[in-house]
Amino acid sequence: MSDKVLVVTTESIPGKEYEVIGEVFGLTTQSKNVIKNIGASLKNIVGGEIKAYTEMMAESRDTAIDRLRENAASMGADAVVMMRFDSGSIGQDMQSVAAYGTAVRYIK
Fold first, then answer.
1. Matching PANTHER family, A to Z (predicted)?
2. Whole-angstrom Cα distance, residue 47 to residue 107?
């Protein structure tokens, strides 16, 4: 059911009227294993993209959106408008990502 919840970054959904239900969130905190952290440290010396961390951020983003949809679906929402991301580091090897927005229900 949550996969049917539309998520948009816009304030409105063209052609849809809706009522606001409330705020919704999707949160995750992830880290890479020791081997990938060592590889990232070595890459930090020479410079360039650290692909293991880029992959971790993409996975974190996807997980946060999935959890946002689940939160919205549990409230009976049809969509989430004004979705945004926030992220931050916890320690040196953990990354936290939050997806948040406003859950809405279509007016029939």
1. UPF0145 PROTEIN SCO3412 (PTHR34068:SF2), UPF0145 PROTEIN YBJQ (PTHR34068)
2. 52
List the chain residues with pLDDT less than 50: none
Residue-averaged pLDDT of the chain: 86
**Phi, psi of 67, deg, nearest 5:** -70, -35
**Cβ neighbours, 10 Å, residue 30:** 16
Cα separation of 71 and 100, whole Å?
Answer: 10
**Residue 85 dihedral angles phi and psi, to the nearest 5°:** -115, 150
Strands 94-106 and 18-31, how do they pair?
antiparallel
CB burial string 56-88: b at 16+ within 10 A, e below: beeebbebbbebbbebbbeeebbbbbebebeee
